[in-house]
What we know:
Elements: E1 2-7, E2 10-15, E3 18-22, E4 47-52, E5 75-79, H1 86-91, E6 102-105, E7 110-113, E8 116-122, E9 128-134, E10 137-141, H2 155-169, E11 179-183, H3 194-202, E12 207-211, H4 220-226, H5 230-233, E13 244-247
Parallel strand pairs: 3-4, 4-5, 5-6, 10-11, 11-12
Antiparallel strand pairs: 1-2, 1-13, 2-3, 7-8, 8-9, 9-10
Amino acid sequence: MRVIFVHHSCFVAEVDELVLVFDYFAGDRVRGFDFCGVLPEYPKDTRIYMFASHSHRDHYDMDILRLWERYPNIRYLFSKDIRISPNFLRKHGIDPSVRERVTFFSPGKSCQVDGLSVTALQSTDAGVAYYVQVRGRSLFHAGDLNDWSMEGAGDLINGRVRRSFRHEIKKLSARPVDVAFFPVDPRLSEHRFDGIDFFLKNTDAKYVFPMHMWQDYSGIAAYKRRLPGPGMAERIVEITGENQVFSVE
């Protein structure tokens, strides 16, 4: 399997001849940031599955719905909070028939999309996280599911978020996870690694890719050195920049 870190929380996973794209948005969509990652080009008949965990502009871009004109075998898997009514699509020059290619997910929903087995978990922010099994591999994209210990939020709110986060992550404790994509947001300061730390200790994820870093990749190497034992640290994949390509055995 080949994994490409595009930017922010967007990853491409190439599983045999299938292509899974998580949380893509164009690089100029977020004010104050210039994300430079680009999606690879594929043959026209490639089977592409585009996931969007929620409607925030750093996770979803309406223009991905135009990609079906280039890739006739594309399918979309969207959180239910993403609104694409026929009138909305017509207003933006998008053929409303694209809705036939979209499967919507609310927390707790599990279904088969072609050869993919997909389960949605409840986010601690907006939308969902995705657990995907395909061709004998298992992937988890957390979206904005994280332990968001926000300064100034208070112990009551932060405690509620933490309990909800841990409840969702424990649902993966008995499931195989070959590749995971997980937030380590630098805006959380000293709590930046709280979520991924719990995730590592409570799942058997083999390769864990940090994401949602707002182009700040510092701290990952130091965090790996703090982890107990080399086996734990080796599970963290160190990202240093956009459009990085990884081979995952």
